[in-house]
Design a protein that fits this description.
This protein is of the alpha/beta class and 485 residues long. It has 16 helices and 14 strands. The strands form four sheets. The protein has a seven-stranded mixed β-sheet, sandwiched between helices.
């Protein structure tokens, strides 16, 4: 209600009560005014009532919610189900226009404002998380892989003769398919083993640049967040190399926003060399449903060029989800989550090391990976060939999700390219292992329960392996696990 309506309300209800209600309303509106003035994530989180008031105010600015609106076009924000309408807060028009995902929609001022505000708040969060000099970003309603593809397709217009993308190996299918889908030939550079860590082979990268010719290379496609024992690429050195040879540099920062170390690598890479864009997932960093990513960079004109490459309008759902989430948390709430994640990483490392020692294994030494950890499974592999993969299925049936069990020697062919030792980021990693990660939102209870169930599974497998060995002179084969918890 506006001031005139409040005045009219005083004729019906005691003026003192109306004035109190008016003041309460103004406290909500003041928060909204500060958001519109500053375009930054509020320090403290908002209540649900403030967020819903704000979203309802935005919704009534869209033409599908105009009283008496007469729509005769093919897209008028019509929704058959009221449940669907409520799920989207009646913000039905999506974001952008047919030529630009960041463009303003004349029929949807509220949705357009939501889009601009979300991008502005996200830029603030990226700076708060460690990339202080980031110039521009936008939320795109695609997951990380397709968002990387969009970046590669944009670079095609700048480098029409380029055929290759240089890619330090990381065994994750979507980032490999992103290059194939964009129509380029990935040049896979194997990592080098340093103690337990798999690190970027800088000499091999530079050799490939010289061999293929810089003008034939679309970009270097590097990675920050990854599964141990792979660690983030040497971003500073790669960025300097890209600057030296005038080659674009795209960074897959899928779940790196939650790690100050990953964000520092990007900041330093941009400072000493060249990083054209870095891409991160919304769901992995901000605990929202799958389906959105942030494309960010240090040259505003290039980021705008990427946004204009997106064909057609886009769903507003990822923008709406992350806006609601960040308004709920506030900057302080998000920083608290990041701090808790880092603390639990240390707790997870401590518990995995203790468990590994109890079973004659070891926690792999991967100090450059700030999120993921790995525990060797040498003893399990020696006891039974199938025990390593069986451990993975046992954990899954016992509701331990996210743990990855990596056997030796697995091969996988993706789009015609065969990866030996697939999932281990190396053709010849020396031991099988188990991964666990401390990602944003994890709790100490998650770690405690995981360690307890993992310990139980390892004891069961060792017992089964010993029984099979003692009962048969033939090479041991593990039994299938059909037991419950």
């Amino acid at each position: 209600m506006n001031s005139e309506n409040f005045t009219l309300g005083e004729k019906i209800v005691s003026p003192s009560y109306i004035r109190q209600g008016c003041q309460a309303r103004r406290s909500h509106e003041q928060l909204i005014r500060h958001l519109l003035e500053q375009g930054k994530c509020p320090e403290e989180g908002w209540s649900e009532s403030t967020i819903e008031l704000f979203l309802n105010e935005l919704a009534v600015m869209d033409s599908n919610n105009f009283l008496g609106n007469c729509g005769v076009g093919e897209r008028e924000g019509r929704v058959a189900s009221s449940l669907v309408a409520r799920r989207h807060y009646r913000l039905i028009h999506g974001i952008g226009r047919s030529g630009d995902i960041a463009a303003i929609q004349p029929k949807a001022a509220g949705s357009s404002l939501l889009n601009k505000l979300t991008n502005s708040i996200m830029l603030d969060i990226l700076k708060l998380s460690g990339v202080r000099s980031v110039a521009s970003c936008f939320v795109v309603p695609m997951a990380t892989g397709m968002s990387l593809t969009l970046c590669f397709l944009t670079l095609r217009h700048r480098r029409p003769k380029a055929r290759y993308i240089i890619w330090p190996r990381i065994d994750q299918k979507s980032c490999f398919k992103a290059m194939i889908t964009a129509g380029f030939e990935p040049v896979v550079v194997e990592n080098v083993l340093e103690v337990d860590e798999l690190r970027t082979d800088l000499k091999a990268v530079e050799h490939k640049i010289e061999e293929l010719g810089a003008e034939n290379i679309l970009c270097v496609h590097s990675t920050t967040s990854c599964f141990a024992p792979r660690v983030p690429d040497r971003l500073e050195e790669l960025a300097a190399m890209c600057s030296k040879y005038n080659i674009p540099h795209i960074v897959n920062n899928a779940y790196g926003v939650q790690s100050s170390k990953c964000m520092h690598l990007i900041q330093q890479g941009a400072r000493v060399g060249r990083i054209d864009a870095f891409v991160q997932s919304l769901d992995k960093n901000f605990m929202v449903p799958v389906g959105g990513a942030i494309i960010a960079g240090f040259d505003e004109s290039f980021i705008q060029e990427i946004s204009k490459m997106y064909p057609g309008r886009a769903s507003a759902s990822p923008s709406l989800d992350v806006l609601i989430t960040l308004l709920t948390l506030g900057a302080n709430g998000y920083k608290k989550l990041l701090s808790e994640r880092k603390e639990i990483y240390s707790f997870l490392a401590q518990e995995l090391k203790r468990l590994a020692s109890a079973h004659g294994e070891r926690l792999l030494h991967t100090p450059h990976n700030p999120i993921s950890l790995a525990m060797s499974l040498d003893g399990l592999q020696a006891g039974c060939d199938k025990a390593v993969t069986q451990l993975g299925s046992m954990l899954f049936t016992r509701q331990v999700s996210g743990a990855r069990v990596i056997p030796l020697g697995k091969e996988q062919t993706i789009s015609g390219h065969t990866f030996r030792g697939f999932m281990s980021h190396s053709e010849v990693y020396p031991c099988p292992y188990l991964n666990a990660a401390s990602a944003v939102g994890i709790t100490r209870e998650d770690v405690t329960l995981c360690i307890k169930r993992l310990d139980k599974c390892l004891k069961t497998l060792k017992k089964e392996g010993t029984a099979v060995k003692s009962s048969s002179p033939l090479p041991p084969t593990c039994q299938e696990d059909n037991t419950g918890e």
